[in-house]
Design brief:
Pfam families: Hc1 (PF07432). This protein is mainly α. Helices cover about 95% and strands about 0% of the residues. It has one domain (about 1-55). The chain is elongated and about 50 Å long.
Length: about 60
């Protein structure tokens, strides 16, 4: 579970950095990277939900 939380944190930081670059400087490549990071983050958050439910049942 800790490893999953680390992955979520890393992915969120990447998303945040790229989204800020796109918003502040109009960097289109950063926008593309941010969208890709958001998809990865979505998958990780779904994994977290599953792991959290399993942990609460145990």
């Amino acid at each position: 579970m800790k490893e999953l939380i680390e992955k979520i944190s890393t992915s969120f930081e990447a998303l945040k950095a790229d989204a800020e670059l796109q918003a502040e400087k109009g960097n289109k490549a950063a926008g593309t990277r941010a969208r890709k990071s958001s998809l990865e983050l979505e998958k990780l958050l779904k994994e977290f939900r599953k792991a959290s439910l399993e942990a609460s049942k145990a």
